[in-house]
Amino acid sequence: MIASILSNFGGSRTPNKSMVGHACVATILLVLPLWSSDFVLSQIAAYAAILGLLALSLTILGGYGGMVSLAQVSFAGAAGYAVAILGTNASGIHGFGWPLWLVLPCAIGLSTTFAAAVGWMSIRTEGIYTIMITLATAMAAFYLCQQDYSLFNGHSGFSGIPKPAVLGLDLNDPAVFYYLCAAVGAVGYAAVLYGERSHFGLALQAIRDNPRRMRALGFNVTAHKLVAWAISGSLAGVAGVLLAWHNGRISPATIGVDAAIEILVIAVIGGLRHPAGAFLGALLVVLIQTFAVDLVGRDHFNALIGAVFLVVIYTSPDGLLGYRDPIRKALRRSMPAVFHALGSMASKGRNV
């Protein structure tokens, strides 16, 4: 049954989205390194792309499947720890030195399997019970990594995780690493956007809205949800690999409960029911984390993030994407007046 679901994932329908908007965003992403500093590329743009990809994995579950998960950062952490243990690190513990072509499938496969296992436990519940199961998973993963020194090196984790050379390109170059993160984020975004209108995506959204009716129509609700968890875990695993390379380390602090909640905040702020919302929310949160210290101090920037979260949710249940229609309507109403004023000014200039 799962095999048949996967075979139907790429349906014949494609998302009907604005090609102009996508082209503009793609152009900005391509030319960003031409005028940005290394700090902006690495600590803002690349980091936002990684967090956006991680929030995108939650969009699949929460936005399309109606299953809220607080364990996404745990799935990413599983891939990050696999990179440190199976690859190389500077902590003097483990670091088996496997080649990249072998480390990556193992890391992403581990996160996918982990997500499928958590999903198998969670899909029999709903609502607050699903949240509690995934929260318990995140807490268990955090304390396991913090207290196990033989495998996870305890509180210190693994440091000195090097960025590899991919296709002869050195990822230590901020521009190169930025392009890698942007490209991976774009591929993930396009895949989710396409999958939204595939047979599998439409069935998953219908299951979210009315699982009992879909079950009566002959759909295997359990199998669809389980596949969604596995796909979500794969995206989270890719984000976890990039996060380990970006930070150069992986530790329990990377997968703490606060990090798990942060991913949920990012997804909800951006807009949980559209893949673009994950990246919008990630960019906003990264900008606040980066520059809010200068405004409210180091001890209060999380309070600012919470305040922004409350304002966005109160004024727009669909997150930042919910502001699109009001802005468009305001522009449509104001543009005729603007053109009329410009025309009046031009006519006065001719008369003078």
List its traits.
single chain; 352 residues; mainly alpha; two-stranded antiparallel sheet; two-stranded antiparallel ribbon; 2% strand; globular; disordered N terminus
Secondary structure topology:
Elements: H1 2-7, H2 19-35, H3 38-65, H4 72-86, H5 100-122, H6 128-147, E1 158-159, E2 165-166, E3 169-170, H7 174-196, H8 199-209, H9 211-216, H10 221-247, E4 249-250, H11 257-270, H12 275-296, H13 301-315, H14 324-351
Helix pairs in contact: 3-7, 3-10, 3-11, 3-12, 4-5, 4-10, 5-10, 7-10, 8-10, 11-12, 12-13
Indicate the proportion of strand residues: under 5%
Helix content: over 70%
Number of helices: 14
- Give me the strand/helix succession: HHHHHHEEEHHHHEHHHH
Overall pLDDT metric: 87
> What's the count of strands?
4
Provide the low-confidence segments as ranges: 1-17
Q: What is the 3D shape? A: globular
Strand order of the largest sheet: 1-4
Strand count, sense and barrel status of the largest sheet are:
2 strands, antiparallel
User: Distance N terminus to C terminus?
Assistant: 78 Å
Instruction: Kindly name the structural category.
Output: mainly alpha
> Which value, in Å, is the CA radius of gyration?
22 Å
